[in-house]
Amino acid sequence: MKQQYRLVSSTPKPFVKWAGGKRQLLPIITKHVPQKFDRYFEPFLGGGAVFFNLVSQGRDAKWLVSDLNSDLALSYVTIRDRVEELIDALETHSANYFKNPISYYYKIRESNPKGQIDKVSRLVFLNKTCFNGLYRVNSKGKFNVPLGKYVNPNIVNKENLLAVSATLQSKDISIKCQDFEAAIKNASSGDFVYLDPPYQPVSDTANFTSYTNANFGFDDQERLFSKFKTLDKKGVKILLSNSKSDEIVDLFKDFSDGIIEINANRFINSVSKRRTGHIELLIKNY
Ligand SMILES: C[S@@+](CC[C@H](N)C(=O)[O-])C[C@H]1O[C@@H](n2cnc3c(N)ncnc32)[C@H](O)[C@@H]1O
User: Which of 45, 110, 200, 267 allows an S-S link to 245, with CB 3.0 to 4.6 Å?
Assistant: First the structure.
């Protein structure tokens, strides 16, 4: 029988851990967010750390968020529309996982469900139990991360899923699966756009661009820069995160007055320091 869930009022947070997630950089990013804007655009949504933080501040705005990863976009829509069924499916995953973590993890990893709840519960389950919570697919679009080393993973964070669901039900929020260009093309004066693309690699070994099976190459960074300039001319306020790579510094040289260097070490804990520990950029045009 379907269980009934009470709505809990808590602040929504990312429901998945996402590569490049901005949770730890929130203090510095939110410092640079404009006081007022009519519409908020975030076309590289990922786990949505910045979006969830801003949307729960009670601002009077419209929110247009999207991501090209179709499974991720489907997860947002499913949490919005079918959260109780999703929680039930995650409870089942959780019970099965704790009976035999290794075999259950790989069985689910190899599965390719077609139904909406099965697809989304698989994504959340794998995200909570896989190594580092890193979403990565191979060239065929298949999730290929090994099992993580968690002793007691919290597979069903019911309170947060309900808080996310309640938030996303607002008529002022639109969630889409699309390329960033389509997502931001209608932004106009008075709007604010936060851009957090896959980072330009600083070295050959630091390439973490496999969020979808279509890699984000330097031609995409150039395409993004061209949209940045178009929006700038329209009077849109734009804030962009990226690595401090020579290519990005050179691409954005006309906006060098708005480049802020962030020492990510100050915000990221010592374990992940070894992974990323260096300077990142925030680039703004206001
Ligand atoms: C750095 S992550 C965003 C992380 C996010 N800010 C967070 O806190 O979790 C980049 C995101 O861009 C998405 N993406 C990759 N290529 C894209 C494209 N061409 N258009 C829109 N989104 C894209 C990826 O699926 C990924 O979720």
Answer: 200
